[in-house]
Write a structure and sequence with these properties.
The chain has a single domain, classed as 2,3-Dihydroxybiphenyl 1,2-Dioxygenase, domain 1. 24% of the residues lie in helices and 40% in strands. It is built from 3 helices and 8 strands. Strands 1-4-3-2 form a 4-stranded mixed beta sheet, covered by helices on one side. A 4-stranded mixed beta sheet has the order 5-8-7-6.
Length: 128
């Protein structure tokens, strides 16, 4: 068994589709119109056959209160691995990304947390 698709709940698929590829650097894998929403996935350019991230609408009644609670408690929705947190932080700051936590050593890992503009805090992490 393996993870094929995981999701992040977004408040606006079009905005997410601009942010995740244009700012973070992911590549669109699928963009299928389903009427009210799209089956919209992105992948790492380093692993185009790897795990897909579904940019899923947060239309379920429980989604927005849950996301709000996570943000208020400063809990990242998910985490993405990077080779160098500091250089990725610097690159994203130059692109206007707002961070709630700068690069911070945490034992064998260094993390930073940013706002994805779609209602989530996202962590980037580098293992030492």
């Amino acid at each position: 068994m393996r993870i094929v698709v995981t999701s992040v709940l977004v408040d606006d698929q079009e905005k997410a589709h601009r942010f995740y590829p244009d700012v973070l650097g992911f590549v669109t894998k699928h963009d299928v119109d389903l009427g009210e929403a799209r089956w919209l996935t992105v992948v790492s350019p380093d692993d185009p056959s790897g795990t897909e991230l579904l940019l899923e609408p947060d239309t379920h009644p429980a989604a927005k209160p849950w996301k709000t609670a996570l943000v208020e408690d400063v809990v990242p929705y998910t985490s993405f691995g990077v080779e160098d947190v500091q250089s990725e932080y610097d690159r994203l700051v130059q692109l206007g990304v707002e961070f709630t936590q700068p690069p911070t050593p945490m034992g064998p890992t260094t993390t930073a947390v940013f706002d994805d503009t779609c209602g989530n805090l996202i962590q980037i992490a580098q293992r030492s």
